[in-house]
Design goal:
Largest sheet: 6 strands, mixed
Shape: globular
Structural class: alpha+beta
Number of strands: 13
Helix content: 25-40%
């Protein structure tokens, strides 16, 4: 059994196929071995930070150069950056609220499966004795899922940041994660609205005026047999919806203050999505509408970072989205006639 204070750390640990740096560490130094000890609750990476006395947060956080006191501790720096970016992606990320499932792949090509169900297919009819049981057919989509690489280039010299406190540096990295998350949300709503390239755009209803409560009821009923549990609204549409009297509920306001989630009288969670085009909303069943496909985790130029070559170090995420059930998402748009306020 390898103990955390005697493990040899090297950049090759980032190159293990299908594994993150922390997963490689956990195999060498399982957290289960520390149950009931002072190190319980820390994962393998956090134990390495403790080993080298590196404090990444709080008023007493260390400077960036603390990571580079030895060649072993330098190997922890890319994982620190990856985790900080992850934190930024998770803070304001609505993807978990609109994605039904996440598929991790290890290749550049991925073709999802689909079940093209008609109205009759959604009904479980009585089957007589000896009669054939109705079938549901699964098939692969005609086109591949489009994967996009989103990221930022970290441009800084080691000399410029070596004395910066890690707490402040983390704030910058979290903001990079926030930018990446916003780009991924934009990709997701684009697929929900216009399809994933397999001729499956969302059914859209165009209104001649701003939506009223009756239009929201129509959206709720038209989505059946799926459930309307999520509504995504553009910036101007968000203001329009919150101006509807039925949406001005004091209890919903209290819930928003406490959780940051805006509920609606229809039982659906309402999310502001600036990436959605103006005067547009999407109503969907988050459990059936969208699949997220990821090619690995947050990727960093670990070799450059370990060698202190920060001048052009990339931080990227490669992901794409695919429709699962096309009818589980519907769009509502409206236009305002000229001369109408």
């Amino acid at each position: 059994m390898a103990f955390y204070d005697s493990i040899r750390l090297e950049k090759g640990m980032y190159a293990a196929p299908g594994k993150t740096f922390t997963q490689v560490l956990e195999e060498l130094d399982p957290s289960a071995n520390y149950e009931g000890s002072a190190l319980a609750g820390l994962d393998a990476y956090q134990r390495q930070l403790k080993r080298f006395g590196i404090k990444v947060g709080g008023a007493g956080s260390d400077a960036v150069e603390k990571f580079f006191q030895t060649s072993d501790s330098a190997a922890l720096f890319p994982e620190y950056i990856s985790r900080a970016v992850h934190q930024g992606m998770e803070r304001a990320n609505i993807l978990p609220s609109i994605v039904a499932t996440v598929t991790n792949i290890q290749s550049p090509d991925y073709r999802t499966v689909v079940s093209a169900m008609t109205g009759d297919d959604k009904e479980l009819k009585h089957v007589g004795e000896g009669a054939q049981i109705p079938e549901t057919t699964l098939r692969t989509q005609a086109n591949l899922v489009h994967l996009h690489k989103r990221g930022r280039m970290l441009v800084a010299s080691y000399e410029a940041i070596r004395f910066q406190k890690l707490d402040l540096f983390t704030v910058t990295l979290r903001q990079i994660g926030n930018y990446i998350a916003s780009a991924l949300v934009g990709d997701a709503v684009e697929v929900l609205l216009n399809g994933d390239g397999n001729e499956n755009p969302a059914t859209s209803k165009s209104l001649s005026a701003a939506p009223a409560y009756s239009d929201m009821i129509d959206l709720w009923t038209s989505l059946a047999p799926y459930q309307l549990n999520t509504i995504l609204a553009s910036t101007d549409m968000m203001g329009t919806l919150l101006g509807i009297a039925q949406f001005q509920d004091s209890q919903a306001g209290l819930a928003f203050q406490g959780t940051g989630k805006m509920a609606t009288p229809l039982g659906a969670n309402l999310f502001h999505v600036p990436e959605l085009k103006e005067k547009t909303l999407l109503g969907l069943d988050k459990n059936c509408a969208l699949e997220m496909v990821q090619a690995g985790d947050v990727a960093v130029d670990y070799d450059k970072l370990i060698d202190r070559q920060l001048e052009r170090a990339a931080i990227t995420v490669t992901a794409g989205f695919a429709k699962i059930f096309t009818d589980a998402c519907r769009a509502v748009t409206y236009t305002v006639s000229q001369g109408t306020d």
